[in-house]
Amino acid sequence: MAELNPAKEGGQAEEITEMVCLESDLKDGEMREVEVGSHKVLLVRSEGGYSAVGNLCTHYGATLSKGALSGSRVRCPWHGACFNIKTGDIEEYPGLDSLPCHKVKIENSKVFVSINKKDLEKTRRVKEMGCRVAGDSSTVLIIGGGPAALVCAETLRQGSYGGRIIMATKEELLPYDRTKLSKAMNVKADSILLRQLDFYQSCDIEVWLRREAVSVNTDEKTVTFQDGSVQHYDQLLIATGSRPREVTCPGADLDNVTLLRTPEDSSRIHQAALGKNVVILGTSFIGMEVASYLSATASSVSVIGNSAVPYQNTLGTEIGRVARKMLEEKNVKFYMEDGVTELTGENGKVKQVLLKSGKILPADVFVTGIGVQPNSAFLKGSTVALDSTGAVIVDKFMQTGVPGVFAAGDVTSFPLSLRKDKMVNIGHWQLAHAHGRIAALNMLKKRVGINSVPFFWTMLMGKSFRYAGYGEGHTEVIMKGKVEEMKFLAFYIKEDVVVAVASLNFDPSVSQVAEIMASGRTISKAQAKSDDMSWLKLP
C-alpha cells in the first residue's frame, strides 16, 4: 500500500506510513500480522483502541500473532513470554528485551501504521538503563550468574538504582542460555551469551567470573569468596541455582562418566559420543533431550529409568509413551524400571554399565541426568533459613527472613500463588527470570509479589512439548486431540480443577491456558472434558 505523507528530513523520509486495514477489519480482542515497509508488525485491537508492536518474540523469534491475546498483553505461543501491546514492554519471561512500538493513526475509517526508517530492521528494544550515580555509596551484591542474577541487575538499573551492582559467579562465562546445552550440544559458548560484555560495562554492572562464595555473614553484611576476598553489601541476592545430582555407584570416578551443567560439559559429551556407545541415566527432561540429540551422532544410545515410562511423574504415562516411541524410532534403547549397580572400565575409562536387572550395557560415555539440588552449602551456619532439601526459603517478595537478603531462581523455595501459596522449588528457566525481577523491585522498595504461572518446554527430535501450571499431585489426565498423530493437549486434574496443561503441535493452547491461570480464573474438570472447547479460543 502507498506511503501516506512521509515526514521529510534532508530530503529523506524519516517514517514509512502505510494503510494496513480498515478500522472495521478487526473486532475488539483480535490481532493480526501486517507489513509496513516489509517489516512484520503485530496490529492489535483491544480495550477500544488500536496498537502496533513488533511481531517477533524477543526470546527465540516466534510469531506473536499466533499467540494468546489477553487484555493489554500478548503471550508468545512457544515459551510463554508476555509483552504489553501498548508499550511493547516485556512483562513475563523468558527473554530480556522488549518489542519495538509503532505509531497508529485512524483516518477516514482506515488504519495507518508508521515506522521510523531507522527502526525497520529492529525486532527488539532494550529498555532504558541507568548507571552508577555519584554520591550513591550503596552496594547490591548478587551471588550467581544465571537469568535470575541478570534480570535482577537489569531491573535495578531500569529502576534508576544508582549504587554499585556486583554480580559474582563461579561460572567461567558471562550469563548464558543454559537451556540450549542439552538441545544443541555442539553449540559454541560465545553464541549463547545473554548479553555481551559491553552491555554490562555501559550499565556499570560489575561481573566477577570464577568467584565462588563460600560463606555469608548477615550480621556484618559480608560475603567471603574462595580466594579469601570479602565483599560488603547493603542488599544481597542469592541466585546460585542448582547442581546436578551425581551417581554414587562403584566406578562413578571413571573417565567419561559425566554430568551436564556447563557449555564445556556439553561440548565434551558431544565430542566423546561421536560414533561411540552412550548410556544415559535418567528419563526426565535433561536425560531425554541428551538422548534425542546424541541419537544422530552416537553409535548407540541407551537410556535407563526407574519409572515405567519417561516423564511419568511430570507429564504422565501417555505422553511418556509418546516420547519413548519418538526416541525408539531413532534406535534409542530404553531400560525402564531398572537402575545402575556398577560402572566398570578399562585404563581408567568407563566401558560397561551393570544394571540391577543383571543386564550389561557397553558404554564409552555415561551421562547422569537424575535431577538437581540447590547450590546452598555456603549458607550453612548463616542466619538464612533453608528447607529440608537445602532450598532457600523466601516469601512472595523473594525476601528471606533476614532483612536486605533476597533469593531467586532454582535455589529457592517460594510460595506459588497458583496453588494457594504452597511452598515449591521449581527449576524453570522462565521462573528464574521472573524471580530476579521481583527481587529487584522489592530492593527498590516497590512491594510487588511473585505471581507468575510456571511455563516450561522440552525438545525431542525437533518437536517441542510445552507445559504450563503446576501438576504435582495430579490424579487424572484428560487428553484432547490424537496422541498417535503427535497432536494433542493434556489437562492435569486435581480436586476437579485443571492445575497444569501440556501440548504437542497444539499451539497456542498452553499459552491460552497460562493466560487464564494468570488472570486468577480456574478451569474445571468439566470444561476440560467437554467436547466444546470454544472457551480456549483456539484459532
Describe the 3D structure.
With 539 residues, this protein is an alpha+beta fold. The chain has eight helices and 38 strands. The strands form ten sheets. A six-stranded antiparallel sheet has the order 3-12-11-6-5-4, with no helix packed on it.
Largest sheet: 6 strands, antiparallel
How helix-rich are the residues, as a percent range?
A: 10-25%
| N- to C-terminal distance | 27 Å
- Proportion of β residues? 25-35%
Radius of gyration: 25 Å
Q: Can you tell me the residue ranges where pLDDT is under 50 for at least 5 consecutive residues?
A: 1-11
Strand order, main sheet: write it out: 3-12-11-6-5-4
What best-fitting shape do the alpha-carbon axes yield?
globular
Keywords:
alpha+beta, six-stranded antiparallel β-sheet, five-stranded parallel β-sheet, 8 helices, globular
Q: What's this, in brief?
A:
The protein is an alpha+beta fold and 539 residues long. The chain is 15% helix and 34% strand.
Q: What's the topology here?
A:
Layout: E1 8-9, E2 12-13, E3 15-22, E4 30-36, E5 39-46, E6 49-54, E7 68-70, E8 73-75, E9 82-84, E10 90-92, E11 101-107, E12 110-116, E13 139-143, H1 147-158, E14 164-168, H2 197-202, E15 205-208, E16 213-217, E17 222-225, E18 230-232, E19 235-238, E20 242-244, E21 257-259, H3 263-273, E22 277-281, H4 285-294, E23 300-304, H5 317-328, E24 332-335, E25 340-346, E26 349-355, E27 360-362, E28 365-368, E29 372-374, E30 392-393, E31 405-407, E32 412-416, E33 422-424, H6 429-443, E34 455-460, E35 463-469, E36 476-482, E37 487-494, E38 497-504, H7 509-518, H8 525-529
Helix pairs in contact: 1-6
